[in-house]
Amino acid sequence: MSRKLIHINYLLGCLSLGVFLICSCSQDQTTSSRSGETKHLTDFSDKSGEVNIAGGTAHIPVMQKAAKDIMSYNPKIKITIAGGGSGVGAQQVGKGLVDIGNTGRPLKEKEQAMGLVSHAFAIDGVAIILHPDNPISALTSEQVAKVFAGTITNWKELGGPDKAIHLFTRDEASGTRAVFVKKLLKNGPVAQHANVTPSNGSMKTSIASDSGAIGYCSIGYIDDMIKAPQLDGVEPTNANCVSGSYPVMRKLYMNTKGEPEGLVKTFIDFICSKNAASYIKASGYIPLHAED
Hints:
single chain, D-Maltodextrin-Binding Protein, domain 2, elongated
């Protein structure tokens, strides 16, 4: 073999080794990156089984985000999530129909009597919402109370256009409604002619499609589809909820029949920990356990 051919083979060998080292390094970096992305999920490594959840609709975005990552990390785990409202959540977990019943309010005495245990994980505000084309940018608590009682029925009475007010509310099982009625309406009445919606999502959709509408929803659901006017001069934001300047706020709870065990306990501990703070923030809420 000539010296020239030996030299060429040597160079090709070096080139192959270089490509191998680059690929190996890249693969190690990818593996390390993926490991970092799932580090917060390691408590689910050796788990399997199902977690069935129902109730408050404000909780759904948080639960869905967490469930998606958990089930992707460990396919042996199945998590199902349904709405229905706080009353439904408490009732179903009390009857043993689901593992976790979500509520957007503290448990009532009759619910506590079923042996339910609450696990708070986030703070949420409840805001008045309007169609984005509505020129009204601020309301007082007194005005809102009169609107929902049915004594103010036209937007011109509030400085807006000469247009009938279309009232939207939630059903009696809703924790969002319970907080709204207690903290904003001061337990005042809601007019019988109000349109009833079954969830925060459907409330947002209803308001976004009706320029004369007024309703309320969890702050976490507010986006460009709707607008949230100031209440008594205060913007309904997470920062104002934390400071206490915005008063219509509540905690979000998961509830179990007795103390949780097994996979259900692992899931609840995860949601209530700093590891789930990113899911809670991404859903528009304030985690009770902040990230480091």
